Amino acid sequence: MPSTTESGGDEPQTLADKLQHLRRLKTPQGKKRPSYETMAREITAETGVSISGGYVWELFTGKTTSPKMDHLQALADWFKVPVSYLSQAPGFERMNAELELLGRLKAAGVTDIRLHDVPGGAADPDSIRALLGDLRALDAYWSEDVREAAARVGALSAEQRQALDMVLSNAALQDALQRDGVRQLAQGAIGLSDERLDSARTAVADEALLDALREGSVREIARQSADLSQASQQALLAMVEQLRRVEQSGRS
After folding, report:
1. Do residues 99 and 25 touch, judged by C-beta distance below 8 A?
2. Exposed/middle/buried for 245, CB within 10 Å: 0-12, 13-18, 19+?
């Protein structure tokens, strides 16, 4: 007997079926499903990909079956599912079953499942626990914040994911990034050349230099002297050293 969706139809196979299925699941219990115009506006606003209500209607009703990749990605991002689910890439059948099962559990008000004695011949407890683990992960994925984070991670390049993994595996770095000043430093470093990043690392590692740079006059001297020739900079350093010695002798 074929599996059925919430509406009682066959398991969604075509793009239009899956879009309608996701539309049902995205609509809160007891609420009216959004119109195609409303969905088009929200998709455009959230993803930045322009799409019309008429085109959304064509996709959802099967009038159009071969959308452009950017439209398909925008739909996947809005529904917070992998684009492979809509493009019928390998693995979409399993995800559809999980979405359907979670939808049924949520509709029934199920929040937890407890294991009791499993009869012989039935699924073993380890397999059931693995299934429950998948469901809990999928339930977390139902959270808007988690889905949004998953969508952003999915759009990262391999290098960006490696950098993210490094951050997630470094507890001290995560703690540091909770500070506004650290995040502002990181944002300020975006776009800097390698040479300027090296200079910034040198400055950050020198506590005396950081203390000196708190003074506006010191920062102004540094800015003004940056355009001087090397000979003039050396002369300026000699003058500063002489002034320092004079002030020290005056204090003694």
Report:
1. yes
2. exposed
Rounded Cα gap, residues 242 and 252, in angstroms: 16
Question: Which has the closest alpha carbon to 49: 78, 91, 20?
Answer: 78
| DSSP assignment letter at 119 | P
Q: What is the pLDDT of residues 181-234, one digit of tens each?
A: 888 888 888 888 888 888 888 888 888 888 888 888 888 888 888 888 888 888
β-partners of residue 10 are 4
For the chain, the structural domain boundaries read 15-115+123-154, 158-251
Render the burial of 168-186: b for 16+ CB within 10 Å, e for the rest.
eeeeeeeeeeeeeeeeeee
User: Against a cut of 0.85, is the pTM above it?
Assistant: no
Where does 15-115+123-154 sit in CATH, by number?
A: 1.10.260.40
Q: How long is the chain?
A: 252
